[in-house]
Design brief:
Layout: E1 4-13, E2 23-31, E3 35-40, H1 46-54, E4 61-66, E5 69-70, E6 81-84, H2 96-106, H3 111-124, H4 140-152, E7 158-162, H5 170-187, E8 190-195, H6 198-204, E9 207-212, E10 215-220, H7 222-227, H8 232-237, E11 242-250, E12 253-256, E13 259-262, E14 272-278, E15 284-286, E16 293-302, E17 307-313, E18 318-323, E19 332-336, E20 343-346, H9 351-363, H10 369-373, H11 377-381
Parallel strand pairs: 3-8, 3-9, 6-7, 7-8
Antiparallel strand pairs: 1-2, 1-4, 4-5, 9-10, 11-12, 11-14, 12-13, 14-20, 15-19, 16-17, 16-19, 17-18
Helix pairs in contact: 2-3, 2-4, 3-4
């Protein structure tokens, strides 16, 4: 049985009366023992949200709960959370043991207990042989492990990590992703991880909150968010996407560039303008005759495990293709895909905007006027 540990109810944060909110009406729940990621670009509000959990920033409006108790007025040092910062915030004049033991000494624990807890924390991060090492003699990855050990030695219920991998090189960052995920599963405590790196979030998380302009625009498992982005921002921000204008002719039937394709999405208005998302890895190169869509190759780059090909169709739409097959610049190729590879996104628009878009599609002859006039009024309003 799952148990809630953190809850935000209608939380808003404004740093002064005249400013726009940096967090807008945040509502979320986090369960005990899971790895959560706050994912967004710089300025999206993710670090502000993290610091509100830690108690470093107060909410302007709304309530924050931890273990079902309102903690808006609980000071940071009284909350059962610890934070690992981007710069690690280690004490350079102390060695590894002294850095990890610092919080325990403030609690005035007996020396034997401190030694035991520090030894266990260093073992968990594979630094048991570095106890006497000076901080200035450690690599970036080792310093990060010390910061994590210093946080977990206090046995927090929640560990907050504010972009702790951003200063590491690519190889070390990948290694630390595995180590952090394994550590979270071994400890069984709640991790809340802040990053702007989409691949990092997808690889490590049980649940992702995608943030933009102070709002949570989508939340879900990594697979849900990657396969079913809710809008253009998420589709464009999470991984690589081909986002093409289309028309939902009917349930499970979408039109792209005047051609109709089977899809797996339904429940939309007939002839509703939509955006169609197809991931580059879901496109299969075939002959021009066998292709569902025909494109002309513009350029390609070798990415190690695949070629990244940029091509354009007759309507001028750009297509990115990830394939193990090499293509020649200027070559005309066919692309094929399965119905489940087509993901449909609705436009967030009013009825007036919808009507205007329909009119535009009729003028551009994307939709025959006879089909529009045949739509019952209730469906047009739907």
């Amino acid at each position: 049985m799952t148990q809630e540990i953190i809850r935000f109810e209608n939380v808003l944060k404004r740093f002064d009366d005249a400013s726009d909110p940096v967090l807008k009406n945040i509502n979320l729940e986090m369960e005990r023992g899971k790895f959560y990621t706050l994912l967004g670009a710089s300025g999206s509000g993710k670090s502000t949200l993290l610091r509100m959990i830690a108690g470093f920033i107060e909410a302007t409006e709304g309530d924050i709960y931890l273990n079902d108790k309102r903690i808006n007025d609980v000071p940071a040092n009284k909350r059962p959370v610890n934070t690992v910062f981007q710069d690690y915030a280690l004490f350079p004049h102390m060695n590894v043991f002294e850095n990890v033991a610092f919080g325990l000494k403030l609690k005035k624990l007996p020396k034997p207990e401190i030694e035991k807890k520090v030894a266990e924390a260093l073992r968990m991060v594979h630094l048991e042989k570095f106890s006497d090492r000076e901080i200035t003699r450690l690599s970036g990855g080792q310093r990060q492990r010390v910061a994590i050990a210093r946080a977990i030695v206090n046995e927090p219920e929640v560990l907050l990590l504010d972009e702790p991998l951003s200063a590491l090189d690519l190889k070390l960052r990948t290694e630390m992703q595995y180590e952090l995920r394994e550590l979270q599963q071994r400890l069984g405590i709640t991790f809340v991880f802040v990053t702007h790196d989409q691949e990092e979030a997808l690889a490590m998380s049980d649940w992702i909150f995608v943030m933009n302009d102070g709002e949570i625009v989508q939340s879900g498992t990594p697979v849900d968010i990657y396969d079913e982005p809710i809008n253009h921002f998420v589709a464009d921000f999470i991984g690589e996407s081909n986002i093409i204008a289309g028309v939902m002719i009917d349930d499970y039937l979408v039109e792209i560039n005047g051609k109709r394709f089977e899809a797996v999405d339904g429940g939309m208005r007939k002839n509703e303008p939509v955006e169609v998302v197809i991931r580059p890895e879901d496109l299969v190169i075939t002959t021009e005759e066998k292709g569902k869509i025909t494109v002309k190759v513009d350029s390609q780059l070798f990415r190690g495990v695949h070629y990244e090909i940029i091509a354009y169709d007759e309507e001028g739409n750009e297509w990115m293709i990830h394939s193990t097959r090499k293509a020649a610049e200027g070559e005309t190729i066919g692309l094929t895909f399965e119905p489940e590879d087509i993901h449909i996104m609705r436009f967030n628009e009013t009825e007036e905007e919808f009507d205007a878009r329909i009119e535009e599609y009729v003028e551009e002859e994307v939709i025959p006027e006879s089909e529009v006039t045949a739509i019952p009024p209730d469906e047009m309003e739907g």
